[in-house]
Structure formats: structure tokens, C-alpha cells
Sequence to fold (211 residues):
Amino acid sequence: MADEEQNENVEETTPEAEAPEAPEADEPEAAEAEAPAEPEPEPAAEGDAPAAEAAAPATPKERRRQARAKRAVRGGAQPTRTPEERQAERDAARARKAASRRAARAKLRGRAKEAGAGAGQATPPREHGPGRQKTRQGVVVSDKADKTITVRIDVARRHRRYEKIVRSSTTLHAHDERNDAHVGDTVVVRESRPLSRLKRWRLVEVVERAK
Fold:
């Protein structure tokens, strides 16, 4: 009995009875071997870049030409016109604009006339124009020359920027046919044709005599 138990214990402890386990480190290598390899990205062809550059126009002139071509395709083919037809269209447009301007000016004149009639005051005439000579009032500073007087015209105006009253004066020569005006008189002179080298004015009246 003792011999049988000893034999059983020996059989249990033999290395053949123990089943060796497979190493874990070999599993990932098998998995990698079974998985298919991913394809590598192919390099871009050398001829693609020039083709893309050629698709986009290089100059603004070419871009405008392509834009006009696209608009023509979308809107349909435009009928060709002769230079005479284009000039006729321009003349018609110019005539329409001129008519509208004339109507607008007539309307403005009518409104101004109504406003003047409502206020009861007529628009003062312009100082200078066809058939209307300028008139000035001044003081005689010299009457030594025969039939000629020198008149000083005093001017007072407000400065556009500084709002200050700026006073200035100028002298002119006027024709006095009867030698009526004398130094110190206040006179009115009117513009006239050239009467001499310096005279471009003529005496109209003596407003006030010198005291």
C-alpha cells in the first residue's frame, strides 16, 4: 500500500503532467502579421500644380474678359449694333435729360415767382449785366485836371475767416464835362466806355457839396 501511494505522488509531480502556457508576448506579433498593411498616400503629380495655375487667370484683363463671357452666357447673346445706332441712343438719352432739366428749372422759377409775389417784394435787379453799367458813390479828392475828377471809393467788408471789418479804398478817374464837382464833394459815377488812358467812368450827379 505504501508503494502505490508513493508512485501516485511521483506521477503527479512529473513535468509532463504540467501543461506549459503560451507566452503572452507572442500574441501582438501574430496580430500584426494578420492585419493588412495600410496603403501609403501617393505623392501629388508634378503636372497638377501648373494645371491649377492655368485655370485661374493671371492678369486682371483676363479676369474681366472671363467675367464678361460668363455674363454673356447667362444673359444670352447681345445683338451687335452699328455705331450709328449707338450714337442715336446716346442722343435720345441726352435729349431726355435736357427735357427733365428744363422742366426742373421751370418749376424752380415758378416757385421763386410765387414766393416773391407772396412777400410783396420784387427781386432786386443785378448790378451789372447787358445794358446795365456799374455805379459807385465816392468822394472827390482831386479836380485839378480839366474835365476830370479823381474819386475815392471807400469799401468796408467783413473778413471771411476772422469776421473782422476790413476797410479799404480805391481811386478812379471820372469824366466831368462841366467841371461841376470839386474836392470834398460826394458824387455818383457810372461805368462808361474808355474815354482816355485812365478814365473809364463818367460823373452822374453830385450828391452832397463840400462844406
Notes: Helices lie at 2-12, 26-34, 48-55, 60-75, 83-119. Residues 43 and 63 are 31 Å apart (CA to CA). The chain has a mean pLDDT of 79.
